[in-house]
Amino acid sequence: MYARVFKRIIDFFCALLAIVCLSPVLVVLTILGAIKMKGNPFFTQLRPGKNEKIFKLIKFRTMTNARDAQGNLLPDDVRLTKYGKFLRSTSLDELPELFNILKGDMAVIGPRPQLVRDMVFMTPEQRCRHTVRQGLSGLAQVNGRNAVTWETKIAYDLQYIEHITFWGDVKIILTTFAKVFKRSDITEENCDTATDLGDYLLATGKISQTEYDLGQKQAKKLMEVV
């Protein structure tokens, strides 16, 4: 009953209350972001949500749009600013997702919404993680976050959707606050940003270059129809 009915109601009012209480912080970060990023302080990206319905996730921008002479975006570690690193280390860049929760795209707790180009490389069993709303935080985030392997993260996601309870969600929320306070498991070791699933599978020899290229094409096609 909690997972089917009450969870969504609680999520809505929790997100609404958080937006009201954190409105001064949101305003300050919006102004600072506009100054630091020299323009739009927000970053939107297509992510697969419940039942793999693609939605626009909104975050505070942490990287610039710097490009090379050919017009291609520069590597993430080049575009990630000091201000952006601060936002990521404190998880403040995630605050605008409260509006995604309010809208119904996301939940407070659930599997973390991954990229569309990550989803296409998941097995049918792994893609079952999309049978529920994706979360601002989740079981994987309090058990290693980006410091664990993709297989482990998805295993935690599947474990969560098998047994969704109110007290389980409360425990994850409290543990999330502790993780944010300690600024732990934000990124992979020696990496500024997390590795995409397809890149990880290719680098570890679990898929071929042909499979990788096909997956990227599929992801691009899925995003084109949104």
Content of β-strand: 5-15%
Question: What letter string, H or E per element, gives the SSE order?
Answer: HHEEHHHEHEHHHH
In the predicted model, the low-confidence regions spanning at least 5 consecutive residues are: none
Q: Work out the helix count.
A: 10
Helix-residue proportion: 40-55%
How far the N terminus sits from the C terminus, by CA atoms, comes to 32 Å
What's the story with the biggest beta sheet?
2 strands, antiparallel
Question: How would you characterize the overall build of this protein?
Answer:
The chain has 226 residues and is mainly alpha-helical. It is built from 10 helices and 4 strands. The chain has helices at 2-21, 23-36, 76-79, 82-90, 97-103, 116-119, 150-162, 166-182, 197-203, 209-224, and strands at residues 42-48, 54-60, 106-109, 134-137. The strands form 2 sheets. A two-stranded antiparallel sheet has the order 1-2. Strands 3-4 form a two-stranded parallel ribbon. Strand 3 (106-109), helix 6 and strand 4 (134-137) form a beta-alpha-beta unit. The protein is globular. The two termini are 32 Å apart. The model has no long low-confidence stretch (mean pLDDT 92).
Helix and strand topology:
Elements: H1 2-21, H2 23-36, E1 42-48, E2 54-60, H3 76-79, H4 82-90, H5 97-103, E3 106-109, H6 116-119, E4 134-137, H7 150-162, H8 166-182, H9 197-203, H10 209-224
Parallel strand pairs: 3-4
Antiparallel strand pairs: 1-2
Helix pairs in contact: 1-5, 9-10
